[in-house]
Amino acid sequence: MAKQQTQQNELLKFVPRPNRPPITITYGPVGWLKKNLFGNIWNTLLTVAVFSLLFLLLKPFLEWTVLKAVWSASTRRECLEISPDGACWAGIFPWVNNLLYGLYPDNLQWRVNLGFAIGLLWFLPLALKKVHQKMVIALMGVILFPFLANYLFLGGDRSIFHYTIACSAFAYLLIVYVNIVLMYLCGKRLEQYLEPFMARFSQKNTTFLAHVTIWLLVTVLIAFIFRNQTLEHVPVDAWGGLFLTLIISGVSIVMALPIGIILALGRRSEMVIIKWFSICTIELVRSVPMITVLFMSVTMLPLFFPNTMELNKLAQVLVAVCLFAGAYMAETVRGGLQAIPRGQYDAAKSMGLSYWPTMILIILPQALRAMIPNIVTSFISLFKDTTLVSIIGLFDIMLMARNIAIDKNWLGLHAEPLVAISILFFVFCYTMSQYSQRLEKKLDTGR
Amino acid sequence: MNSELKNTHPDNDQSGRTAIKVNGLNKWYDEFHVLKDISLSVSEKEIIVICGPSGSGKSTFIRCINHLEPYQEGSISIFGEKLAKNKQSAALIRDNIGMLFQNFNLFPHLTILENCTLGPIWLRNIPEDQAIEQATALLDRVGIAKMAPKYPGQISGGQQQRVAIARSLAMEPKIMLFDEPTSALDPEMIKEVLDVMIDLAGSGMTMICVTHEMQFAHQVADRVVFMAEGEIVETGPPDQVLKNPEWDRTSQFLEHVLSH
After folding, report:
1. Of A186, A204, A187, which Cα lies nearest the Cα of A195?
2. Cβ–Cβ of B106/A347 closer than 8 Å?
3. Which DSSP string do the residues of A254-319 spell out, in sequence order?
4. Which of A101, A118, A410, B88 has its CA 20 to 30 A from that of A195?
5. Containing H/E element for B208?
6. Residue A183 to residues A24, A216, B35: CA-CA distances in angstroms?
7. Which of A95, A67, A104, A81 is nearest to A405 (CA)?
């Protein structure tokens, strides 16, 4: 008995060791080179061989693009005289403005710049840490920003309704930024200052009421300030270049996801009519080439509308591209939905969530998160596919680039503009892909 | 508040009130007859343990109670209200029943705390700060308040199951269903979950547990239901069913389980 007692006393108390930070292995670039490329004699030989082969292959390209290129000339003939087998970059520079803005009047191009700047500003706060309700800001951006952008880009006499919404969009953005500044300076938002005042009128939702009140006031103020300003009308036909490409791809990328989600949910729905409608839409659109959809939208869509109604080509194209993108996105989203285990539905259902809350709160966030690589892949291909609109005569960046070769001074200048816009496309697409990878890392919750 | 009012109703004597009444339940998967004429009545605050070999329909049965599975024949009533396939029965389930699963089924994209506040905020319209307060208290009760800001993927299985219990409790259910809550756990973690369940049983919750933990059945069950081949073979207090079973099928099963 006594022995047992001592034995028990002898038991050691287990105290877990403190966590150490993970070991970081840092080989410098030189270390890496030594280890991987010049480790032994064979490695070294192989490296030299591969690099000389690469050099041989890339040399003509390098010569063409840089070494023998012509950077200033006034016509293609001049270019060829200076250096017959170099690139004629001189031919690109006079066209840069057209490549970017199409035929948008030079003195009004600030409107395009302003529009895109506002667009960027709108989505910039989403990357900041201290900003509240990012979803609301993003959603507002998707709903309100198009009105503001359209107002800026198109100009002309627009209806009061359109004017008001554009003003409210501007007001909203202004408030968002004032809030951000206040948040970083004083740690309080604008509506929180007004809250005590609003509490006199209503007990519930004072923050929300304060927010709306400020928004309305600022909208009225802005509408009053700009009441006498009318922007000069720029018809859609004059839009072009990268500007147009970005509009088409931007709208289709933003619309593709909601259309895709709705079609994907429809396809999985238990309601027969909705299910078959979704299946038919998806399969029909997916089994037709995009060019066909584009042509049909331009030639056939007017048949469905009364003669008196004037359709604009851009709107028709946008409808077609969105539908096309949506159908593809639907299948991507469906793949994501199928990957969600049944237990998630069970848990949501036994908690008492009905269909839409289950989808919005539980299923879609997980499905979309898992689908980020695929979704971004479709965004990238969509971005590139929009160049197809050049075929139906919209002067996007592609058609603009092809047009240089028809100009009488630069007749036959095909390769250089295409290389130039390839570089531009690469920059955009690579940015998207990098962003998606960052997003994936950020959203990874250690599953 | 509402439930207190109901309880004082003369017809509903506190302890004698039936929580769940299952009558002649039949279910088929295509040709396969999974549940055969299941009838069971569970009174309030009673703790029922359902055991039986795998494939005997235990899980299917309690999933039917929660309306996660459709059934072809029979009826299920909860506090006297019959379940039907409509929104009303969804509300009936939501207000009365909580369920735990073998695989925990926490929402992996939400933190532990968000898992527990989601239901109260979206379904009960409880203000966020109040919901957080309640959820923190519940997490404290199951012993993992520290984990609140973590994600389900970052904690152990036993902790996940305890979070699942807290998540169910946040909806203030009167009945809890357990579908093999410890089968996916290591022995060391089984205990921590069972302790919470025992604590819950002591608090007067109506519970139906599908489990292979015979020790637990002995300790807390008011009645043990033995199922095999989609039928209820026998029902009775744990001492009777687990020590002196009437049917050979039961004793066969018990031999297997206990010798394990």
Report:
1. A204
2. yes
3. HHHHHHHHHHHHHHH-S-HHHHHHHHHHHHHHHTS-HHHHHHHHHHTGGGGS-TTPPPPHHHHHHH
4. A118
5. strand B206-210
6. 36, 21, 60
7. A95
pLDDT greater than 50 at residue B14: no
**CB-based contact B39:B22 (threshold 8 Å):** yes
Residue with tokens 């609140």, as numbered in its chain: B148
Indicate the DSSP class of residue B12: S
Give dist(CA B242, CA B254) in Å, integer: 7
H or E element that contains B55: none
Predicted complex ipTM: 0.87
Residues B136, A353: Cα–Cα separation, whole Å: 22
Look at strands B81-82 and B73-78 and give their pairing: antiparallel
One-letter amino acid for residue B76 of the chain: I
pLDDT band with cut points at 50, 70 and 90 for residue B8: very low
Chain A: residue nearest B164 by CA? A347
- CB contact at 8 A, B114 and A445: no
Residues of chain A short of pLDDT 50, as ranges, are 1-2, 447
Residue A186: both structure tokens together: 């004083």
Contact B199, B230 (CB under 8 A): no
pLDDT over 80 at B160, yes or no: yes
Q: What is the pLDDT of residues A208-252, one digit of tens each?
A: 777 888 888 888 888 888 877 778 888 888 888 889 999 999 999
Length of chain B: 260
Question: What percent of chain B stands above pLDDT 90?
Answer: 38
Helix, strand or coil, per DSSP, at residue A339: coil
pLDDT of B88 > 50? The answer is: yes
B156 vs A: CB within 8 A: no
Helices B128-141 and B157-169, axial angle in degrees (round to 10): 130
In the predicted model, is pLDDT for residue B106 greater than 90?
yes
**Nearest residue to B212 (alpha-carbon basis) of B244, B242, B173:** B242
What band does B7 get if pLDDT is binned at 50, 70 and 90? Answer: very low
Provide Rg for chain A, Cα atoms: 29
Q: Is A107 exposed, middle or buried (0-12, 13-18, 19+ CB in 10 A)?
A: exposed
Query: What is the 3-class SS of A116-176, one letter each residue?
Result: HHHHHHHHHHHHCCCCCCHHHHHHHHHHHHHHHHHHHHHCCCCCHHHHHHHHHHHHHHHHH
Q: What is the DSSP letter of B86?
A: S
Which of A351, A368, A447 to mutate: most B Cβ within 10 Å? A351
SS3 A204: coil
Single pTM value for the model:
0.80
Looking at residue A146, its amino acid is: P
Inter-chain residue contact A446 with B154, CB threshold 8 Å: yes
- C-alpha closest to that of A264 among A343, A348, A375: A375
Q: What is the pLDDT of residue A327?
A: 93
pLDDT tens sequence across A189-204: 777 777 777 667 766 6
Give Cβ neighbours of residue A47 (< 8 Å, ≥ 6 apart).
Answer: A37, A38
CA dist B54 and B58 (Å) reads: 8
Out of A347, A353, A366, the one facing B101 most closely (by C-beta) is: A347
Q: Choosing among A132, A133, A208, A350, which should be mutated to test the B contact, i.e. which has the most B CBs within 10 A? A: A350
d(CA B248, CA B238): 16
**Smallest Cβ distance to A447: which of B94, B153, B167?**
B153
Q: How many other β-carbons are positioned within 10 Å of the β-carbon of residue A369? A: 18
Q: What percent of the residues of chain A are helix, what percent strand, and what percent coil, each to the nearest 5?
A: 75, 0, 25
- Answer whether A257's CB lies under 8 Å from A276's CB: no
The single-letter code of the amino acid at A386 is T
